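Could you join me in thinking about how sequence relates to backbone shape in a protein? We need material for that, and I hope you will provide a protein of your own picking. Once you have written the record down, we can walk along the chain together:

…
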Amino acid sequence: MTGSTERASPLSGWSERFRAASAEPQRFSIREIPFATQVNLRGNAGDTGFLFEVGRVLKCELPRAANTWMGGESCTVLWLGPDEWLVVAPDGHAEKITSDLREALKSRHHSVTDLSANRTLIELTGSDARMVLAKGCPLDLHAGAFKPPQCAQSVLAKSQVILQCVEPEPVFRLFVRLSFAAYVAEWLLDAAAECAAARPLDSDKVATRLA
């Protein structure tokens, strides 16, 4: 018997439930972004040489302000602490990013660790997304208080997460440890259902039900 080498994300079996919960995407939509490259970087933010070399390798500046992120689709860097960042890129880039950073920083104090296998990403969009997250997250998620380019390490329903506000519409990304992914997904679907149930009925729908 031969073993399978096909990768499976922790939420690979949730696609149908996510699709059903996203029936009104302008209100709420949820999806997993599996296998994203995630590299933890540590170093001296006061060292201009360190900043230069990292920027040269990543083609992206390191965010210096607390709880912010910089970058785009090809590479995004999230601030995790005064000397710590999370480099996020599409699947398949971890080896190159880690090797290039280590080579560029070999003469400087640093740490580069591939954490791609530690977390998966869950993306939420739609007008209900803030309300859904607010049910289990202690952060102030009001549109004026938590907006791009902000991110934060926090908890959601007692699970440790990294929360990134990607777009103001809004678009949120949750970085969730693999062992908690199913629990967080279940909680999000329950919270979204509660928000939908509490939403005032559309007058056309009421008329249809009464007809």
Notes: The domain at 36-115 is CATH 3.30.70.1520 (Alpha-Beta Plaits). The chain has two domains: 13-35+118-199, 36-115. The radius of gyration is 19 Å. The CA atoms of residues 36 and 91 lie 5 Å apart.
